[in-house]
């Protein structure tokens, strides 16, 4: 049974309270629905700001929503653990410097640094994203059809032994029991 924050606060009035007990649970643990909405809104505001010739106000709002959306989506502990890894320090620095430049009024340089930082931070997720997109119904068909077209050579190996010796000959013959047999031997089943 949960107690409301006000009753917890009243019952612990004589003892020391930690900061995590005073914060609402949604901020401490993260809420994916709210976080995804914040991230999506941040992306929309940033894109609209870029399309309106780098409108500073819209891009600032987009960055603030992005900053609020990341910890809400994956939680503050995971966010700090991911962004503060030593091998991701350069990418995190570029992202933070880009956000700072957008906030102080240099949106073109700020967005360039943000994009560089985001590509370095999340670049290893693009192959996973491609696999997920290829499994989606409509997008997967489009991605797979582009892969098959374009005049690329087929990757099927050729059986050169039979192609050189038996050019134009049919390799299938009809047996006595009315089933088709392959006259090429065991090598044909590997190709």
From TrEMBL:
<dbReference type="GO" id="GO:0000139">
    <property type="term" value="C:Golgi membrane"/>
</dbReference>
<feature type="transmembrane region" description="Helical">
    <location>
        <begin position="89"/>
        <end position="109"/>
    </location>
</feature>
<feature type="transmembrane region" description="Helical">
    <location>
        <begin position="34"/>
        <end position="54"/>
    </location>
</feature>
<protein>
    <recommendedName>
        <fullName>Vesicle transport protein</fullName>
    </recommendedName>
</protein>
<dbReference type="InterPro" id="IPR007305">
    <property type="entry name" value="Vesicle_transpt_Got1/SFT2"/>
</dbReference>
<dbReference type="GO" id="GO:0006888">
    <property type="term" value="P:endoplasmic reticulum to Golgi vesicle-mediated transport"/>
</dbReference>
<feature type="region of interest" description="Disordered">
    <location>
        <begin position="1"/>
        <end position="22"/>
    </location>
</feature>
<keyword id="KW-0812">Transmembrane</keyword>
<keyword id="KW-0472">Membrane</keyword>
<feature type="compositionally biased region" description="Polar residues">
    <location>
        <begin position="157"/>
        <end position="169"/>
    </location>
</feature>
<keyword id="KW-0333">Golgi apparatus</keyword>
<feature type="transmembrane region" description="Helical">
    <location>
        <begin position="60"/>
        <end position="77"/>
    </location>
</feature>
<keyword id="KW-1133">Transmembrane helix</keyword>
<dbReference type="GO" id="GO:0005829">
    <property type="term" value="C:cytosol"/>
</dbReference>
<feature type="compositionally biased region" description="Basic and acidic residues">
    <location>
        <begin position="171"/>
        <end position="191"/>
    </location>
</feature>
<dbReference type="GO" id="GO:0042147">
    <property type="term" value="P:retrograde transport, endosome to Golgi"/>
</dbReference>
<dbReference type="InterPro" id="IPR045176">
    <property type="entry name" value="Got1"/>
</dbReference>
<feature type="region of interest" description="Disordered">
    <location>
        <begin position="147"/>
        <end position="191"/>
    </location>
</feature>
<comment type="similarity">
    <text>Belongs to the GOT1 family.</text>
</comment>
<feature type="transmembrane region" description="Helical">
    <location>
        <begin position="115"/>
        <end position="133"/>
    </location>
</feature>
<dbReference type="Pfam" id="PF04178">
    <property type="entry name" value="Got1"/>
</dbReference>
<feature type="compositionally biased region" description="Polar residues">
    <location>
        <begin position="1"/>
        <end position="21"/>
    </location>
</feature>
């Amino acid at each position: 049974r949960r107690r409301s924050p006000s009753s917890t606060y009243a019952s612990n009035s004589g003892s020391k309270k930690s900061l995590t007990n005073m914060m609402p649970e949604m901020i401490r643990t993260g809420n994916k629905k709210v976080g995804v909405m914040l991230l999506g809104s941040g992306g929309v505001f940033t894109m609209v700001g870029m399309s309106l010739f780098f409108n500073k106000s819209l891009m600032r709002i987009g960055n603030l929503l992005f900053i609020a959306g990341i910890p809400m989506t994956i939680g503050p502990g995971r966010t700090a653990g991911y962004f503060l890894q030593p091998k991701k320090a350069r990418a995190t620095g570029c992202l933070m410097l880009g956000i700072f430049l957008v906030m102080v009024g240099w949106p073109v340089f700020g967005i360039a640094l943000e994009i560089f930082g985001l590509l370095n931070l999340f670049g290893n997720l693009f192959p996973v994203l491609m696999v997920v997109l290829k499994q989606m119904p409509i997008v997967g068909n489009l991605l797979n059809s582009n892969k098959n077209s374009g005049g690329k050579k087929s990757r099927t190996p050729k059986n050169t032994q039979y192609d050189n010796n038996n050019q134009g000959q049919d390799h299938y013959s009809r047996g006595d029991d009315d089933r088709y047999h392959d006259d090429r031997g065991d090598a044909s089943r590997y190709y």
